[in-house]
């Protein structure tokens, strides 16, 4: 036993650098925590999770993670009180909580330094992620149990009728509501950018250049249906700056003015409940669109695209695929976020296969480009 503990301690001090090896050890360690915890540890873990988020938000508001990350020596609650203006006794309680929950390191009595976790939480994208979850998602979670009880525990599928509307006292879908909340949108966009920073993209697993080979200036090469603020169009222009042909961002009229300005990207207001007006594109692309709808509605969106497709066209669906068994907590977390804030759903591989078959599509390629999240592309053609 002491040998096992010594090996675990050695791993704690020098975790492997290889991401896949780290993930394996992380998953095994999580199982070990659960296998060895007593009932009070269990209840602390379960009941403590909203408090961890709440005090991460407070620490972030006070800039505690940044101050600790920038300090070369341990800081006390008194010194942090000086630089934040917060009461030292209040700070000492918050710092103790953060340390006991592994967000900062306690090096002595009332002395704290940054750990790797602190430095992560100090990054602007993670600060924004905490704020987004605390301010936009947490109120939805609070509203969820009653919402599900009141609606007889049916699977939420109406974007206008979800815990989100109750939590934020709105009758708008969350995207439309968020457009009127500039600070929230800023945090959301920072958080999305952070999550994708340095990660592989779908262009790493799809032969884009090969598929659009032979295109001319008039060729419609890429139509991003419901492309939001146009990150994927911008990515294509960055990766293939000399690509001839038209790249079109389609979304609702109130979204397009927020699009990232990208040279050579056309913006076209389009409602995907109507037939696709742009015919014969090489690639129609839908990222995080079908997850927002139950199967029948998702099939309608696809059906509105099929008449535009020719034998040169493909439809790429870029979405999370949850494995049929053994889903990661990261993907199920995302699924619950979708359910409570958008009445939408992530799908398992089997659910995707069934949906696309019903929609009249044949799958040519199905590849994950982010193993940790299950983000994948499904390349399809009409059957
Ligand atoms: C989850 S976001 C995905 C955005 C983008 N594809 C991405 O992956 O970042 C869904 C997008 O669908 C757009 N949308 C919703 N209803 C639409 C409609 N009827 N027609 C076109 N776009 C729509 C929203 O405005 C939003 O930009």
Q: How would you sum up this structure, described in words?
A:
- The chain is an alpha/beta fold and 383 residues long.
- It folds into three domains: 37-122, Winged helix-like DNA-binding domain superfamily/Winged helix DNA-binding domain (Arc Repressor Mutant, subunit A), CATH 1.10.10.10; 124-196, no CATH class; 202-382, Rossmann fold (3-Layer(aba) Sandwich).
- Helix content is 49%, strand content 15%.
- It has 16 helices and ten strands.
- It has helices spanning 2-13, 19-36, 39-62, 64-70, 77-84, 88-100, 116-122, 124-150, 163-167, 174-179, 182-196, 208-211, 231-239, 295-303, 329-342, 349-358; strands at residues 105-108, 111-113, 220-225, 246-251, 265-269, 283-287, 314-322, 347-348, 361-370, 375-382.
- Strands 3, 4, 5, 6, 7, 8, 9 and 10 form an eight-stranded mixed β-sheet that branches. A two-stranded antiparallel sheet has the order 1-2.
- Strand 3, helix 13 (231-239) and strand 4 form a beta-alpha-beta unit.
- Helix 4 (64-70) crosses helix 7 and helix 5 packs across helix 6 (88-100).
- It starts with a helix and ends with a strand.
- It binds S-adenosylmethionine.
- S-adenosylmethionine is lined by residues 175, 226-228, 231, 251-252, 255, 270-273, 287-289, 292.
- Keywords: Methyltransferase, Transferase.
- This is S-adenosyl-L-methionine-dependent methyltransferase.
């Amino acid at each position: 036993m002491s040998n096992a503990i010594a090996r675990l301690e050695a791993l704690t001090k020098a975790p492997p650098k290889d991401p896949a090896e780290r993930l394996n050890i992380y998953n095994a360690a999580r199982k070990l925590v659960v296998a060895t915890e007593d009932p009070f540890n269990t209840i602390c873990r379960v009941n403590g999770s909203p408090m961890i988020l709440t005090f991460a938000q407070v620490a972030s508001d006070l800039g505690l993670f940044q101050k600790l990350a920038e300090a070369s020596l341990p800081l006390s609650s008194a010194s942090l009180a000086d630089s934040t203006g917060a009461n030292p006794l209040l700070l000492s309680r918050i710092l103790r909580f953060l340390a006991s929950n592994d967000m900062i390191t306690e090096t002595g009595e009332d002395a704290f330094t940054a750990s790797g976790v602190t430095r992560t939480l100090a990054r602007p994208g993670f600060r924004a992620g905490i704020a987004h979850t605390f301010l936009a998602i947490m109120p939805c979670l609070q509203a969820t149990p009653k919402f599900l009880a009141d609606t007889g525990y049916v699977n939420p599928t109406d974007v206008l009728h979800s815990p989100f509307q109750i939590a934020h006292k709105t009758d708008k879908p969350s995207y439309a509501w968020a457009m009127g909340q500039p600070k929230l949108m800023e945090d959301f966009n920072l958080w999305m950018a952070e999550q994708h920073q340095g990660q592989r993209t779908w262009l790493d697993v799809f032969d884009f250049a090969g598929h659009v080979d032979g295109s001319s200036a008039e060729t419609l090469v890429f139509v991003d249906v419901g492309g939001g603020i146009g990150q994927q169009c911008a990515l294509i222009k960055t990766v293939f700056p000399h690509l001839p042909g038209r790249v079109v961002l389609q979304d609702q009229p109130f979204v397009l003015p927020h699009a990232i300005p990208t040279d050579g990207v056309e913006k076209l207001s389009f409602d995907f409940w109507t037939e696709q007006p742009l015919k014969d594109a090489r690639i129609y692309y839908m990222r995080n669109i079908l997850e927002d709808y139950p199967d029948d509605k998702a099939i309608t969106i696809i059906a509105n695209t099929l008449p535009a497709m020719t034998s040169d066209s493909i439809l790429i669906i870029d979405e999370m695929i949850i494995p049929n068994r053994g889903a990661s907590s990261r993907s199920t977390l995302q699924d619950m976020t979708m359910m409570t804030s958008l009445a939408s759903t992530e799908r398992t591989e089997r659910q995707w296969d069934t949906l696309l078959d019903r929609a009249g599509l044949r799958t040519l390629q199905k590849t994950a480009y982010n193993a940790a999240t299950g983000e994948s592309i499904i390349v399809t053609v009409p059957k």
